[in-house]
Amino acid sequence: MRAGPAARPLLMDNKHYHLVRNYPAGGSVGHHFRTSPGWQRSLNIVLRSLAAVLGGYFFTYACTAALARLLPLARPDAVMVASVPSFALYTAVAVWAFAAPSAALAWLPLALALPLAAIGFWPTFFGAGL
């Protein structure tokens, strides 16, 4: 009698071995994802997704505003030049949100955006030039 695929132990299946291998604590970046309960993993993914979308948008917007304010060009030229790297910045923040070791560190660009937003939007809110 031939044993079907369900009868084989999963650890012996070379094709899927990397999915079930037991890593020592701290031995792999993805160790937390494989060992956490389902709701914690889902919450982690939701927090990272929000950090990528909302944190990435705010960080990119603040960087673009600060760069446009600091460039020694005419206002339309400074806005155009500052807008060019915004696509790469947003992509980098989105990648960082999922590559960060923890969900808390995924929100780091949002903390870095606060001083940039102060530089970029100071004259708008307080009516004074830099």
The unreliable regions are: 8-13
The average pLDDT is 77
Strand-residue proportion: under 5%
Measure the end-to-end span.
82 Å
Helix tally?
Answer: 7
Helix/sheet category:
mainly alpha
Quaternary = single chain
Order of helices and strands: HHHHHHH
| Backbone CA Rg | 23 Å
Helix content: 55-70%
How would you sum up the global shape?
elongated
Keywords summarizing the entry:
130 residues; mainly alpha; 7 helices
Structure description:
The structure is a single chain. The chain has 130 residues and is mainly alpha-helical. It has a domain of 82 residues. 68% of the residues lie in helices and 0% in strands. It has seven helices and no strands. The longest helix is centred in the middle third of the chain and has 33 residues. The termini are far apart. About 5% of the residues have low confidence.
Outline:
This protein has a domain at 43-124. Helices cover 68% and strands 0% of the residues.
Write the layout of secondary structure elements.
Blueprint: H1 17-20, H2 31-35, H3 38-70, H4 75-83, H5 86-99, H6 103-106, H7 108-126
